[in-house]
Structure formats: C-alpha cells, structure tokens
Amino acid sequence: MSKKVNAKRVAYQQKQEQEGKKVVNWIFGVLVVLAIIFMIYSFFIIS
Fold first, then answer.
1. How far apart are CA 15 and CA 17, in angstroms?
2. Which of 32, 37, 39, 45 has the fewest CB atoms below 10 angstroms from its CB?
3. Cα dihedral: 27, 41, 39, 29 (round 10)
C-alpha cells in the first residue's frame, strides 16, 4: 500500500513542478512584454 502512495506522491510532485515552471515562464514573459511596452511609451514621451 505504501508503494502506491509513494508513487502517487512522486507523480503529484512532478506534475506540480512542471506546472510551477510553466507559471514562472508566463510571469517572466509578461514582464518582458510590459518592459517593451514601457520602453516604447517612454520613447514617445521623450520625442
């Protein structure tokens, strides 16, 4: 019984790790896009 529980726990941890990495990548992507938009906005303000 404990082998099944251990296997499920390991599978759940791997799934959570993959989803966590995906979320972190999305956050960094959004931050990069916002930085680019801010750069374009500031160039228009200066000129």
1. 5
2. 45
3. 20
